Amino acid sequence: MSLLGEQVKAAGVVGCGGAGFPTHVKVGARAEYVIANGAECEPLLRVDQQLMIARADEVIAGLELMGEAVGASRLIIALKKKYQGAIDALRTEIARLHSRVELSLLGGYYPAGDEQVLVYDVTGRLVPEGGIPLDVGVVVDNVGTLINLYQASRGVPVTHRFLTVTGEVKNPVTLSVPVGAFVEDVIAAAGGTTVDEYEILDGGPIMGAFTSGYVSKKTTGLIVLPRDHKQVLYKQRSIEIDIKRAAWACDQCRACTDMCPRYLLGHRIEPHIIMRLVGQQRADAIPPEDLAKAYLCCQCGLCGMFACPTTISPDKVIAALVGAMKEKGVARTLLSDKFDPHPIREGRKIPVSRISRRIDVLRYDRDAPLKSEPLAVNRVRIPLHQNVGVPCQPMVKIGDRVEEGMMIGRPPEGSLGAPIHASISGVVEHIFDDSIFIRA
Q1: Packing angle between helix 143-153 and helix 56-70, nearest 10 degrees?
Q2: Short-list 188, 217, 185, 183, CA closest to 201
Q3: 258-268 residue pLDDT tens
Q4: CATH 2.40.50.100 domain span(s) along the chain
């Protein structure tokens, strides 16, 4: 492993876009392109565009380091053309640093930040079905990940996470939060909630999951929504109801398929067919080739939250099906690079404003200014599993005194994972099965 790879691994750098893939693995790859993903897929979130303004030099430095490591000939920052402040800041720094970094300006469509959509729109290359960007010579990293990579090259581990707090809060804000900070403490930093009954989404309003716990390295935002909000009710609806609706109400209009971003790239996923099969027979009776197509779903939610006129939820049904297949060890058997994008793909790109209106979050589309000072907290509960791969094993015991930046957990030798570090200085009060609690 290269020096940079060792530094990135020791610092615990993982993907900041939500997936949490250990970045040191990408550092060891070979690729022609490195794309910094600043498209910020979800509505309401502001973190990536604000980082590209406030820390443009570190984004560029991290991109250059990654490009050098993988031998890339093209270094590109992909962001939406409406992010004028970020565009100006990046162009200024590129000129000042005489950098070879380029900008690729995208439309305001959803899901522009999906890796495979991004790769095609920036490079014209199609990621194979069931494949990853590296299959076509591309490495994609979130802009926040590249900042952390740059910091890792200077010996600084990942202890904080930039995120946006918005929705039903008094003062929407983007800030740096210690990893493991309690959600209630972060919400308080935004002035508290404006409603008494609410739910909190970790991530964006479309793909985010409910939380009442604590921040991880993968947390891109905290969205507070009223408990009776349509998006909350959609996410809380049981999978049993969704499967019954697939049988009762799906009329095979195929709108879910016609607007699916992976289908529009030419992949053979057809959500309407999966819904028909799930609704009409047992999942274990579905033909293997149709099961394999379910693995192609990127869980963007467009099919259920926008395309389907009755919100039958193909995305949730497919997620449940894929989960069941993984439990049974059903392999990803479908892999093809012989396909072409749909001829009217451009006309079917969905503006972020349209899906925001459909799921009733457009009213929360407000500025969330970036705070320069990190949030100070007196307690954290740091998850042992914050990445693709295996959880960390604790390196401390109850009663130990730790300092911010100290490694407190690491994955088993030879396994895929990333270490974790104390995000505040204090004493280890509890070690749970899934986390370490530290009080200042």
Answers
A1: 80
A2: 183
A3: 999 999 999 98
A4: 379-440
Give the domain 379-440 fold: OB fold (Dihydrolipoamide Acetyltransferase, E2P) (2.40.50)
Query: pTM for this one?
Result: 0.94
Torsion sign (Cα): 236, 242, 248, 252:
positive
| pLDDT for the residue numbered 335 | 65
152-143-408 Cα angle (round to 5): 35
What is residue 282's predicted lDDT score, i.e. its pLDDT? Answer: 61
Q: Does 284 score more than 90 pLDDT?
A: no
The maximal CA–CA distance of the chain, rounded, in angstroms, is: 63
Segments of the chain assigned to CATH 3.40.50.11540: 3-153
Measuring CA to CA, which residue among 59, 144, 142 is closest to residue 94? 59
Residue 95, Cβ density class (10 Å: 0-12 exposed, 13-18 middle, ≥19 buried):
exposed
420: buried, middle or exposed (CB in 10 Å: 19+, 13-18, 0-12)?
A: buried
Which CATH number does 159-229+360-377 carry? 3.10.20.600
Q: Are 242 and 233 in contact (CB under 8 A)?
A: no
H helices present in 83-132, as ranges = 84-97, 115-123
Amino acid at 299: Q
Q: How far apart are CA 366 and CA 45, in angstroms?
A: 9
Q: What is the per-residue pLDDT across 97-145, written as a single tens digit (0 to 9) for each?
A: 999 999 999 999 999 999 999 999 999 999 998 889 999 999 999 999 9
Residue type, 433: D
- Give the tokens for residue 220: 């891109």
The predicted-structure confidence for 299-341, as pLDDT tens digits, reads as follows: 999 999 999 988 888 999 899 888 888 887 777 766 676 789 9
Instruction: Dihedral sign for Cα 245, 248, 249, 254, please.
Output: positive
The token pair at 165 is 């707090």
Token code pair at residue 237:
């609806």
**What type of residue is 243?**
I
Pick the closest to residue 214 from 46, 384, 367 (CA basis). Answer: 384
Q: What confidence tier does 283 reach under pLDDT thresholds 50, 70, 90?
A: low
Q: What would the two tokens of residue 50 be?
A: 């604000």
The CATH architecture assigned to 3-153 reads: 3-Layer(aba) Sandwich (3.40)
Other Cβ atoms less than 10 A from the Cβ of 433: the count is 6
Could you give the CA distance from residue 185 to residue 200 in angstroms, rounded to a whole number?
Answer: 13
Which residue spans of the chain are classified as CATH 3.10.20.600? 159-229+360-377
